Amino acid sequence: LQVSHAPSQPLASNESRRFTNKHSKKALKASLTLGILLGMFFVAWLPFFVTNVAQAVCGCVPAGFFDVLTWLGYCNSTMNPIIYPLFMRDFKRAMGKFLPCCRRSAEPRPSAISLSMRNSNSGPRAATSLKNVL
């Protein structure tokens, strides 16, 4: 008796390819987002830190220029909430649940009680004793 498994193997390899492609796309998107965030961080803060070291060594940096570089770093913190929703769908969904301006009309607003119950782990529990724990 011979059992052929030939028809199921192409399906398995096809599903494997789809799984790999899906995860490689997610990994590529995650690395792109991380690269953009780190690039923005370095562009915004590196001049500040280099100038800070130069100021400590020679004291030749004008105060106004130092203030501009400090505000450039602060602008980086302003850019993060803009970058995250552009590149991360999960972040966009999470913000949509809590910010009234981003919520879709069909989505109900979670109540404060349901949020506190969800976060408090105060659901039904099995009776525990020291004997059961040990």
TrEMBL record:
Native source species: Donacobius atricapilla
Keyword set includes Disulfide bond: yes
Gene name linked to the record: Htr6_0
Residues that span the membrane, as ranges: 27-48, 68-87
Annotated Gene Ontology cellular component terms: plasma membrane
Keyword Disulfide bond listed: yes
Protein name from the UniProt record: 5HT6R protein
MF (Gene Ontology): G protein-coupled serotonin receptor activity
Cross-referenced Gene3D superfamilies: Rhodopsin 7-helix transmembrane proteins
Example of a GO biological process term: adenylate cyclase-activating adrenergic receptor signaling pathway
